[in-house]
């Protein structure tokens, strides 16, 4: 609810907040789009390297990168376009619903794949050989299919709840009723942000506990079943150790960049019946727009996390990729 009383000073502040929000939305969106698309494409090519693609955790990172690209394309492209021309997803109902459905579904898939990766690391680090047997590429592929189905079913109500050309809402393409808004927002908060983050931290702590108990001897179940040379065993252990570090750092950044949106949406739901001034509403809408941008940063940052925290394993795979690209370019020039 809003109050109709607006002073001259409030009007000036409203204009200032609106202009600041537009500038941030314009330039930060462009930066995040380039930053995220380049990062995720590089992620895909690096994780497709032979040394990584057969590892269950690396495979989950790979599919998560595809999902993150869809998140960025479906979310940021329309924000960028709206700064120069009419955003059709704000005016055409079916486009509005389809874009939001793709955005929420792909973001949920990306988040739950990271959760599945944390479960895989816990299984792999377990002292129980029976649990370690479940850390296989086949099992995580089955889990990925279930996650995709679950995400699609969870957000099917968007096709009923969302509508375009709305007023007095944070976005023109938004939930058309209070009940729809509460249902979709709380589903997003719980299913896409809070619940997977809680489980990620839980399995992360359990994995670190397993690692300490085994004196940092994280062993692949594949290596326990076949006879390999010592140097190959050390190589696989090194990959698993660096993948665990990459995962834990990514979970931390994911929490840091997505929890503000959850907090903001909870606040909006609790205060939805309070009388608010136009300035208060504008400030809330500006904050809402900014915390949404932070979630796109979460979708675009994994490659840079992996490069900085992935040790020699990820960086070597990246340098091998760069050398191959360089050779291709030189051959084409000849």
Task: Report what the structure shows.
This protein has a single domain, classed as Rhopdopsin 7-helix transmembrane proteins (Up-down Bundle), CATH 1.20.1070. It is 81% helix and 1% strand. The protein is built from 14 helices and two strands. The radius of gyration is 23 Å and the shape is globular.
Name the overall outline: globular
Name the helicity range. Answer: over 70%
CATH topology: Rhopdopsin 7-helix transmembrane proteins
> Can you identify the CATH superfamily?
Rhodopsin 7-helix transmembrane proteins
The biggest beta sheet is recorded as:
2 strands, antiparallel
CA(first)-CA(last) distance: 68 Å
Number of helices: 14
Number of strands: 2
The SSE string, one letter per element, is HHHHHHHHEEHHHHHH
- Report Rg: 23 Å
Oligomer: single chain
Average per-residue pLDDT, rounded, comes to 83
- Structural class call reads mainly alpha
Q: Classify the beta-strand content into a percent band.
A: under 5%
Q: What is the topology, as strand order, of the major beta sheet? A: 1-2
At the first level of CATH, the class is Mainly Alpha
Identify low-pLDDT runs: 216-233
Number of domains: 1
CATH architecture tag: Up-down Bundle
